[in-house]
Amino acid sequence: MPYDEIQQAVIEGKPRLAGKLVQKALDRGENAPDILDNGLLSAMRRMGLNFQNDDQDIARVLACARAMKAGLERLEPYFEGGRFGDHGKAILGTAGGDLHDVGKNIVAIMFRGSGFEVVDLGVDVSARQFVQAVRENPDVKVVCISCLLTTSLPEMKHIVQALNEMSERRDFRVMVGGGPVTGEFARQIGADAYTENAMDAAEIARTFSENVQAQRRG
Q: Own/partner pairs for 178-181, CB < 8 Å, 24+ apart?
């Protein structure tokens, strides 16, 4: 398979090699969307990107994400407008009281690779900041909230409640994730979706974006 080497470079966390192999594929005439889907994104699917709270896994996933980013940088000029498709805008942030950003950063990379324009609010983000970001980006399709600390779960709940009270709520979807988050908790607090890994998050976000666009047209 022509994309096996690219996949392996990403899985092994080798950004310089991943970028070089992507450029090599482009130079020999390979189609940029094919390289993205069959090379970079396929590697992420093989990884699974199940984020666990231990140093070994964090280091491995970070290396994989850096390699993915290096490949995306080579591909970006080959996509119209410098973007990977057009799934709209996504707002990402780590819930207030939590300074962890590894999981959020990996999701941001996957979202960009899947065709989203990402607005990254950073870490320790309050409900007020999320609401303000939505108002400043009325074309947002997806809002993603992450946390790695159980002590930040109440703040995540508060953020989702604040978003759910917005008059614009029907125009975007809310996703949550992170180590202590569960599907049951997501349902209890009124989120639209919970995912265990970055690849699933990107795929669900694409579906949400398409549904929102269809809803707005209707």
A: 178/51, 178/103, 178/146, 178/147, 178/148, 179/51, 179/52, 179/53, 179/103, 179/147, 179/148, 180/147, 180/148, 180/149, 180/150, 180/153, 181/146, 181/147, 181/153, 181/156
**What b-and-e string marks burial along 188-207, b requiring 16 or more CB atoms within 10 Å of the CB?**
ebebbbbbbbbbbbbebbbe
Contact 84, 75 (CB under 8 A): yes
DSSP 162: H
The model's pLDDT over 23-39, given as tens digits with 9 standing for 90+, comes to 999 999 998 888 988 89
pLDDT score of 80: 57
* Pairwise CA distance, residues 49 & 7, whole Å: 14
Q: What is the spatial distance between Cα 162 and Cα 145, in angstroms, rounded to a whole number?
A: 13
DSSP 8-state assignment for residue 125: B
Read off the pTM: 0.76
pLDDT digits (tens, 9 = 90+) for 134-149: 999 999 999 999 998 9
pLDDT tens by residue, 94-136: 999 999 887 788 888 888 877 888 999 999 999 999 999 999 9
